[in-house]
Specification:
The chain is of the alpha/beta class and 170 residues long. The chain contains five helices and ten strands.
Length: 170
């Protein structure tokens, strides 16, 4: 199995819980699941695969802790690493910026030379108007809405875990 590190940014615990569920689905040890406020370039460099999660706040913004962490990750040098993105939002209250943070992570890391995994998640079955994480009917990572669609979270995570396995990221 590849060395997988999961980093999440979470203000009220939802994305943290999602990160733990993703870890369980992939068999990643709890010690490799980190709050992104603890991220250092050295700790991230030790992983072959990074799964990065953020909830969306404000008007479609990253969870606060990511603002310090993103530059550190770019510094770490992601060339050759696999990167998968996930996040959570609220499509009922914020339908025009649903899970934008996933798109912001993607944009913030696309020049690093990493290879993204876990993309191409169908937007069918979600109920939102716009998201910077989606183009042509697909999300660039795993989008979850634990506020309105909590009943679908486990099934969406299980499907994403299968996708990551099929892409050789596990
Ligand atoms: C003030 C505020 C702004 C928010 N803005 C967005 C948004 O723009 N897009 C979105 O999808 N969700 C938005 N949300 C919903 C959060 O992303 C959602 O509650 C999420 O589950 C929080 O996860 P966390 O506890 O891991 O931080 C917002 C929530 C609040 C309270």
């Amino acid at each position: 199995m590849k060395k997988i590190g999961i980093y999440y940014g979470s203000s009220t615990g939802t994305c943290a819980e999602i990160a733990r569920k993703i870890a369980a689905a992939l068999g990643v040890a709890p010690a490799d699941v980190h709050d992104v406020s603890d991220l250092t370039a050295a700790s991230a460099a030790g992983y072959e695969v990074l799964l990065l999660g953020s909830s969306t706040w404000g008007d479609g913004e990253l969870q606060d802790d990511w603002y310090d962490a993103l530059p550190k990750l770019r510094e770490a040098g992601l060339r050759g690493k696999m990167v998968g993105l996930f996040g959570c939002g609220d499509s009922g209250s914020y339908p025009d910026t649903f899970c934008n943070a996933i798109g912001l992570l993607y944009d913030g890391l696309k020049e690093t030379g990493c290879s993204f995994v876990g993309g191409g998640v169908e937007t069918d079955g979600y109920d939102f108007s716009a998201s910077s994480a989606a183009a042509d009917g697909k999300f660039v990572g795993l989008a979850l809405d634990d506020i309105n669609e909590s009943g679908r979270t486990d099934e969406r995570i299980a499907r994403w875990a299968e996708l990551l396995k099929a892409q050789g990221a596990v």
